[in-house]
Specification:
Strand content: 5-15%
Mean pLDDT: 80
Order of helices and strands: HHEEHEEHEHHEHEEEHEHEHEHEHHEHE
Number of helices: 14
Low-confidence stretches: 1-42
Radius of gyration: 22 Å
Distance between the termini: 20 Å
Helix content: 25-40%
Largest sheet: 7 strands, mixed
Number of strands: 15
């Protein structure tokens, strides 16, 4: 982390993103990149600003979010109405948008790339990145005016983490919004829109529910790769994180349901699947039963799931994200090395290289534990790519703590490290 970066980072609370390619291989020289986000107004040197812009656009949904674009299904009767989905944030939100598109198309809606031509506008939101929130409220202001001009002949839906976090407050802030819904209601969008119509009032769906297995088929954004949710929510309660409060408690899908979805993807010609979860290694903790081998582990673990779905015909590559160091076991590493369809890429956030800070974050592991995980991966898969996240502005962090994070990153030969400060 060079001096120019820190000079722009330290006086304010903002996001730093640093990409470090391991120096273990001669052709991999260290490459530093920065992404800065700040509530204060600040001007960056042109070269740094260019890198910021590049990284913003390279994230899952880009700095401006991503608009769902697809042809209408040919085998479903149309109702003459169109929907528009604008997604911000992570791959979990992208998967949720695909599910919502599947729900709407199953009842006759067609996709519109142009929000001005849509009867239902959906903003699938992210509460982690401030820019995404700002963009959503800016878009809502424009569409609220359009709705007033159309005398109500338009439905505005705010979904995702901002919706879950703000709830009724969002409805009060933007009265033209018809529906606020948390991520857990993605496959119930049609029912919620019916409630809006039948009740003639705003609807706020943010209560905790048991997520039911999808009946509708998600409308995938690709014909080759697909997201497959394996676990929803998170139970970790890390002191800096809002996810447990916006996505709820952990709920694992049954192995049979996950395999059934992957079988359908293989039959449809998909080649690659990414298994998704906020804490994917925690899969199965909420499912009943203990292993029959007397080991004391749960009957259903993420390692067992990988072995169960690995032989699905047609699927050639399997990835997963995101992992938690507390649950990343030797058994999982060995399975990834043994199963040929598993891609040798691991995203394992470490958040800090300082044990005291990790304790304050309630992460449940030490820097030494993280290094042992990386060493174990390298032992079985020497050429594996590993990425991680670090928070460099957590309350109480001193300059020495930043050095610990940098050391952990370089000693572990992490391929990509995304670092951010607390806002």
């Amino acid at each position: 982390m060079h001096a120019e970066a820190m000079a722009h980072l330290c006086p304010h609370r903002r996001v730093l993103q640093q990409s470090i390619r391991p120096g273990a291989c001669p052709h991999r020289q260290p490459l530093h990149r920065l992404s800065v986000r700040c509530r204060a107004t600040i001007e960056l040197p042109p070269d740094l600003q260019a890198v910021v812009n590049e990284l913003e656009e390279s994230k899952y949904c880009g700095g401006e979010g991503t608009v769902l674009v697809r042809e209408a299904p040919v085998d479903v009767p149309k109702n003459g109405k169109r929907y528009h989905i604008h997604t911000f944030g992570c791959q979990m939100n992208l998967a949720d948008s695909e599910r919502m598109a599947g729900v709407l198309e199953s009842v006759g809606y067609e996709c519109s790339e142009d929000p001005a031509k849509a009867d239902v506008l959906i903003y699938n939101t992210c509460s982690i990145r401030e820019k995404a929130e700002v963009k959503v409220y800016s878009a809502l202001g424009k569409q609220a005016k359009r709705k007033r001009d159309r005398m109500g002949d338009l439905k505005i839906v705010v979904a995702g983490c901002v919706a879950q976090q703000e709830g009724q407050q969002l409805l009060r802030r933007v009265p033209e919004v018809d529906l606020v819904m948390g991520p857990q209601f993605a496959n119930k969008l049609d029912e919620l829109l019916e409630r809006v119509d039948s009740q003639g009032t705003q609807v706020c769906a943010t209560d905790h529910i048991e997520i039911s297995e999808d009946i509708t088929v998600p409308r995938r954004d690709s014909s080759l790769t697909a997201w497959v949710n394996v676990i929803y929510g998170c139970n970790e309660k890390c002191t800096y994180c809002v996810v447990p409060y916006t996505r709820g408690q952990e709920q694992s899908r049954r192995q049979e349901d996950i395999r059934r979805e992957m079988l359908a993807l293989g039959e449809a010609g998909y080649k690659e699947v990414t298994l998704l979860g906020q804490n994917v290694d925690a899969y199965g903790r909420d499912l009943p039963g203990m292993a029959a081998d007397g080991s004391g582990r749960r009957q259903h673990t993420f390692t067992d799931l990988l072995r169960y779905v690995h032989d699905v015909p047609g699927i050639e590559r399997i990835r997963f994200a995101t992992s938690h160091p507390r649950y990343f076991t030797d058994r999982l590493v060995r399975a990834c090395a043994e199963l040929p369809k598993l891609c040798e890429f691991f995203h394992i956030p470490f958040q800090s290289g300082d044990d005291n800070i990790l304790r304050e974050m309630a992460r449940g592991y030490t820097a030494a534990r993280y290094r042992s995980i990386i060493d174990n991966i390298r032992r079985y898969m020497p050429d594996a790519s590993i990425s991680g996240d670090a928070i460099v502005g957590f309350p109480g962090v001193a300059s020495g703590c930043l050095g610990h994070a940098a050391q952990l990153c370089t000693r572990s030969a992490v391929s990509l490290c995304c670092c951010c400060t607390q806002m």
